[in-house]
Amino acid sequence: MSDVESEVAVLIVGGGPVGLMARALLARWGVRAMLVEKYPELSPFPRSRLVNVRSMEIFRQLGLDTTIAARALAPRFGRIRFRDTLQDRDFATAAMVGVDAPIAESPVLGVVTSQDRLEPTLLGAAETPARYGIELVDLIEEADSVVAVLADHDRAAEIRVRARYVLATDGANSTVRQRLGIGTTGPGAMAGFTTVVFDADLAPWCADRPAGVYFTPNGSFAPLYPEGGWAWFALSPEDAEHADWPALVSRAIGTRTEVKPDVLRVQHWVMTAFLAERFRHGRILLAGDAAHTVPIIGGLGMNVGIADVHNLCWKLAGVLHGWAAPALLETYEPERQPVAERTLRQTVENAQLMLQVLTKRRDQRRDGEEAEIELPWSEQYFAQLGLVLGVAYHSGAIVADDSTPPEEGTDYLPTGKPGHRMPHRWLTETRSTLDTLGEWFTLLTPDPARWAPQTSAPWPLHIEPLPHDHNAIFDIGSHGALLVRPDGHIAARWRDYPPSDTTLAETLATVTGTAFH
Q1: Helix, strand, or coil (residue 190)
Q2: What pLDDT was estimated at residue 3?
Q3: What beta strand segments (E) does 200-244 contain?
Q4: Burial class (CB in 10 A: 0-12, 13-18, 19+), 68
Q5: Nearest to 97 by CA among 81, 80, 73
């Protein structure tokens, strides 16, 4: 048996976008972390395609949004198109809201990109160790830590790492979740799919009608990079091992003009949909696909995982740095599990909407009709903006007030109610209310002088002036204030003067689960 080789504050198991994001966030907080990934390198497959506006807001907070956008497809690709084959005309189309054009609700634009372009940017966002070819074998729980038993495939050796906390971001087939015996609910494995990465000149049918995804009855096409490259994904054929992939892709492209695709890579995968019964087991926490998976329709899966670790990492930092109690971590599951459950419902509905379109087109062609199809949703890609920006938390880390909560539907309604994401408003031509956030709590108020004497030690706090013309949207008076958590969600709201000189400290103690003295 090997001895413990190293000790870290947080061990991240899994090196996909969610794990890499957690590593970057913890580094910003000064938390000593290590990431391990069983595969020897970053994935060469495109996988996740959509970075929505909320994820781009989080990337903006880390200063990564400009780089990610520069490596992504242009905004004109923020659209979906439906065709009988890729060479046919559109019979339906819709914009991806917040991707194809700016929206008033956010300072950023979402992007269509490929996971293999996103991951290197996230990897470069921190200098803390990221070790590839290292696989988790076992977890040994101790009173104040967890010892991870790891297999180093390069050295054919066993390593032991002791961590104060373990964060499992190791995907749908999570070894950590399985070792802990945490069950799942939901449909589970839904269907087997194959992704074929290929090169071909498809400009005659796509250059003047760009899209992030082209849906056809014989599979879907996605442009990969600004300089070129394509992916085709479809249900796996029965004899996938002996499939003629160039022929299958060519048939889906169309027969009007023969196109011979140059197949580069083929990947088989299973689309799953489930929710872990628990997101936490003692000092071990699940995030991303380890905690929940959803159907790919709508591009929500990776984005929900990024929001998971944005919610969790400031809490881990607070506990490890001593200004939050371990009880703060108990708010992670009640805040994020309902979001995952709601997202799962929405993506199932997305799949049903997609089926409606394809079924209606099949009936149309059977009856000899060629009219365009009116999509069964609005010009907001599956009407999901309320789900992306309208998430509201209810937990001990939120101090609720007596206001009536807005309904959590598919439409987004900006609000200053505690629990909700801080609404975007421009403070200057280039600085948003969201740009005031960081590795600290933010107090936004029209009257900074009145709130400045309030003590906030030991909690990190910045006080930011809020122009009076924004008071109405936040429902505060000229001496009121909003306390915003590091993850951008409103922790508390005061409509007028602070009730006492200790109001702020008492509230911070409540939010972080600590005792006020």
Answers
A1: strand
A2: 67
A3: 213-216, 219-225, 228-235
A4: buried
A5: 80
